[in-house]
Amino acid sequence: MSANIRPAGILDTNYAQDIALNRTRTDKLISNGLFALLLLIPLLTTEGPFGLNLIQQSWIGIIIRIAIYVIAVQGLNILVGYTGQISLGHGAFVAVGAYSAAIMARNLGLPFWLIIPLAAIFTGLVGLLFGLPSLRVKGFYLAMATLAAQFIIPWLLRYPLADFTNGSRPLEVPIPTLGPLSFASDAAMYYIIIPLSVFMMLAARNIMRTRVGRAFISVRDNDLAAELLGINVFAYKLQAFFLSAFFAGVAGALIAFETNSLSLDKFTLNLSIEFLAMLVIGGAGFPLGPLFGVAFVNLLTQDIIPARILPAVGPVLPGLLPFIDPVNINAAISPLLFGFILVIFLIASPRGLAYRWEIFKIAWKIRPYSH
Amino acid sequence: MATFFEQNKRYLIWMGYILLAVVLLLWLGPLIGEKRPSRWVQTTITGLLTGGIYALIALGIVIINKASGVFNFAHGWMMLLGGFIFYSFFSSGQVSLLAAVLLSSVTVIMVMTMGSWRDLLQPRTALITLAAIIILILLMSLPGTEWKFVRAIAGGVTGAMLLGLVVERFTVRPLIGQPLFAMVLMTLAIGRLLQGFIQLTWGSVETPLQIFTTPEGTSLPTIKLDSLQELLGGVAIIQPGLLISFVLALLAFVGFVLFFRFTNVGLAMRASAENQRLAQAVGLRVRVILAAAWAIAALLATVGGVLQGGATNLSVNMPLLALLAFPAVLLGGLESISGALVGGLVIGFVQEWTNLLFPGTQAHVELAPYVLLMIVLVIRPDGLFGEKRIERI
Fold first, then answer.
1. Residues of A287-311 as b/e, b for ≥16 C-beta within 10 angstroms?
2. pLDDT in tens, B121-154
3. Contact at 8 Å (CB) between A98 and A208?
4. Is B200 within 8 Å of A336 when comparing Cβ atoms?
5. Which residue of A360, B38, B114, B147 has the fewest CB atoms within a 10 Å radius of its CB?
6. For B328-335, what is the mean pLDDT?
7. Helices and strands per DSSP (H, E), number in chain A
8. Residue A141 is nearest to which of B178, B193, B381, comparing CB atoms?
9. What angle do helix axes B286-311 and B264-274 make, rounded to 10 degrees?
């Protein structure tokens, strides 16, 4: 939380001010304005009602992807950043959310606004199940237990539940409708996903301001002391697992409705690693950390690497390093850069971008006196 | 009621285990009875033979954990990279001199300056360094196919040492003192980095590594257990590649265990694993020992990668194998070297038996080891031979 870094001049006189989301009127104006601007973006593309060409159509897809991933990573943030438990199985929980939403839409024909919370609750219960080992083990052992989830859940989806999930073949998801409205295009889905994503971010922030959130942080900082204070450590750990999987379930359901076609190849261990990497790059334990991390990694992998780095590096690399086969550069550049950036962040800036952002905000507020 | 449960908790838990075992037997017994005895023998043999590789992988993970308290999720990618380096030296008739010079000189200098670069200033060390570099270059650039094993072993060992030292020096050492989470993520990041490097250099197609062949280049004949045919009601066969790799894996395993038990360096490693500060206080150079542990683990990974590559192929599926060795590590106990052997064999055994009893579900590949892991975690988190520790949860 940012509460421990506070610039001079902003003084709180009561508790409500101390925990307020927006401390000043300017803060409130800026955050609401940004939200309104975000909602305007689809109107500015060529396919919008005015036919403007201010923003490229492809950016809608990128923003949607960021908004969905932010929900999943925020869930991981609750578990890893705030409660201090390691999870290597978050990708599998997203898969549970996606597939349960798809099955509910296909086989039960429920409307999507009912499916999303139902899928999230179901995923939360699955997460609770795999959180049970935290009763006995912690640290590395818990990482292994969650890694087991990453192997067991996709296997269950692929083989015993193949009648519902189509096994290894892709599963079609019906297009969500609301009365006469049909959310087929990206721009239409945008207006479901963005408000929901903002809502989930606010929800996470609010959970962390309550008794539950403070209990999570105390479990992370010192579980023995937390227990001594009367906090039921195990119950709160399970709550953290539930909430984390709940967020993953929302993200999974949105993925199902957004892509309209699910395949199990997406939800591998690599996805879990990417979630963790996004969290660390953004800053674990900061409310805005997931946003920074997801935006950074997604912009890098969706836009900067394929559009800028690859055309620049591709022709030069084989001449520079003679042992490289030019055919492989496209496939290899992404994991190479991803791993490299993660290593750099872990060594140079383990607290992530959100921490830098806090530092920057303070430096800005107290300028020109930097100390 | 509550007091009754409290008083007899141990017995009740044991009765629960026995009940579970009986149910398991009743469930699996008929399935086992359906199969012919020859399949039992076949499955057991194949399982134990594949388990040898798991044991080797598990040993590499245990060594790093013992020395530096890091769980190396990148072990599988280190295996694959080692296997590919071996393959490059093995398959090409003549390695370029520049590559040989670079690889050997960088590696030897890094090995010699593990403690401090000033060591190089001593004339004796400098001379040894130079001699080692020249010998390695000569070994690596031996021409012709008849020397390919010498060439490949020299190149593979050098490459593995370099890999371990680089990983330790540039990624693990800066993180000393950071929380466990950072370390876990760091090894995962190293895995991605190595994946990118491998894909860049060798591509992602499956590459056969034909090390288990007759001198003429044909594949070895399979071994049939004909004499047991009457008894078993069928023929059990042994894949020669699997058998050789099992024997080599066991030899490597025994070699490293002896190294730890009977050499000064091994003793120093055990000491620093036991208590780093104390080891430093009695004059051991813990930094050197950590670097050496990573080099040894990379060497083990390379041996495992080459053997597995010889038994099947060099492919991007190999890192999965290392993830399946984690249940073996936990089953044996995180600090136990003999536990790594037992755990590895058990994992291979369980995998093959699952394949026999539940065919067509692919359950044996990923599911069985991890179900076993969950059982171990719930019943006995310290593993069979691990240190008992009282940890506050």
1. bbbbbbbbbbbbebbbeebeeeebe
2. 888 988 998 999 899 888 888 877 778 888 889 9
3. no
4. yes
5. A360
6. 85
7. 17, 4
8. B381
9. 110
Main-chain dihedrals φ then ψ at residue B237, nearest 5 degrees: -120, 160
CATH code for the domain of A249? 1.10.3470
Nearest to B354 by CA among B324, B380, B381: B324
Residue B204 with chain A: CB contacts under 8 Å = 328, 331
Is A318 within the bounds of a domain? no
Q: What is the pLDDT of residues B346-381, one digit of tens each?
A: 999 998 888 888 877 777 777 888 888 888 887 777
CA of A219 vs chain B CAs: smallest distance (Å): 10
Residue B190 in contact with partner chain A when CB distance is under 8 A: yes
pLDDT at position A195 is 93
The total domain count for chain A is: 1
Residue A371 maps to a domain:
no
Mean pLDDT of chain A: 87
Burial class (CB in 10 A: 0-12, 13-18, 19+), B310: buried
Tell me how far CA of residue A76 lies from CA of A206, A291, B125, in angstroms.
16, 12, 51
Residue with tokens 């007899």: B8
> Is the minimum CB–CB distance between A318 and chain B shorter than 8 Å?
no
Strand A171-172 and strand A261-262: the pairing is: antiparallel
Strand partners, B223: B238
In a 13 Å sphere around the CA of A239, the CA atoms on its Cβ side amount to 18
Q: How far apart are CA B364 and CA A155, in angstroms?
A: 11
Closest to B393 (Cβ–Cβ): which among A136, A147, A277? A136
Phi, psi of B301 (to 5 degrees): -60, -40
Structural domain boundaries enclosing A73 = 2-310+327-365
Measured CA to CA, the distance from residue B61 to residue B335 in angstroms comes to 10
